[in-house]
Amino acid sequence: MAKLFRVSNRQDQGELIASSLGINDKYENPDDELKRKGLIEVFINLLRFCHEHCFNAEKISTLMSILYLTHLKMTEPPLPSIREGFNEFKSMLLKHSVERPPFSISVFTPKDVSIIVAYITDTYFRQWRLYQFVYGQAVDLNLTEEKEKEENEDLNRSAEITPLDKEDELKEDEDDAGEEIPKDFTPEEEEEYNKLLKEYSLEVQELYESRSEALQSSFTERLSKLASRSEDVVPEEEAKKEEVKA
Fold first, then answer.
1. Which residues sit opposite 100 in a β-bridge?
2. 153 — phi, psi (to 5°)?
3. Does the chain have fewer CB atoms within 10 Å around its N or its C terminus?
4. What pLDDT does 141 receive?
5. CA–CA separation, 22 vs 33, rounded Å?
6. Which of left, alpha, beta for 80 (phi over 0: left; psi -120 to 50: alpha)?
């Protein structure tokens, strides 16, 4: 990675990064050329970020390796969630931020970790669905159907079925009608079934009573209105009669 400091051309920087990280080997197929160029662009922008914050060659190399390993993890089947991918990235970053050999080594300072997490979150993880769609590996699922076995099973089932007489059919219908609870219920399930049935009956009864009371009150109000109207009409008719007589 020290060679990157001696290369100023953007294209040359991209090719150097691709060869160092193994991007060329990963996407060596001509059909994957656009994927290769797109990923190189990601790391060129990352290199610019490192230069802006004056990272040395060790920090640049470590950060690029961490991001590339995270990218491989995010795009390999089964595709992980964004939380799983971010936890993987955070775990690798912390292993290079604390001096605790042989478990971890201090490459980044706490300030470096803060700005790195903010940058990677805003650039890579914000577009993680897009990266998974473009770079995710397709998995083919092949299903085989055993038609002969299914046909034999259907024939066996039809052979086991015997026709019933009308009396047997009527008897079977009566038995089914008399069963309120299936026979395969356990005592606990039967108790729960009866409890739910009772609660449902109470709810229906309360709903019916409330509707009945509402209808009764509405009917009473209408009768009172009609009665008041009739009382108002009668005095008017009597007054008209008296005027005619006079």
1. 104
2. -65, -40
3. C
4. 61
5. 14
6. beta
| Pick from 175, 156, 155, 154: nearest CA to 164 | 175
Contact 107, 58 (CB under 8 A): yes
Give the relative orientation of helices 110-123 and 57-75 as an angle to the nearest 10 degrees. 40
The residue type of 10 is: R
Q: How many CA atoms lie within 13 A of 198 on its CB side?
A: 6
Q: Cis (ω within 30 of 0) for the bond into 163?
A: no
pLDDT digits (tens, 9 = 90+) for 69-83: 999 988 888 888 888
Task: Name the token pair of 195.
Answer: 């409890």
Name which of 130, 61, 139, 138 is nearest 96 in CA terms: 61
Q: What is the mean pLDDT of residues 186-198?
A: 63
Contact between residue 67 and residue 43 where contact means Cβ atoms under 8 Å apart: yes
How far apart are alpha carbons 223 and 215 in whole angstroms? 12
**pTM for this structure?**
0.54
Tokens of 88: 């993987």
Q: How far is residue 51's CA from residue 70's CA, in Å, rounded to a whole number? A: 21
Q: Which helix (H) or strand (E) holds 105?
A: strand 104-106
Q: How far apart are CA 106 and CA 132, in angstroms?
A: 31
3-state secondary structure of 217: helix
DSSP-derived secondary structure letter, 227: H
Whether the Cβ atoms of residue 135 and residue 77 lie closer than 8 Å to each other: no
Question: Over the stretch 218-245, which tens digit does the pLDDT of each residue have?
Answer: 767 777 777 676 665 555 556 555 665 5
Give the whole-number percent of the chain exceeding pLDDT 70: 57
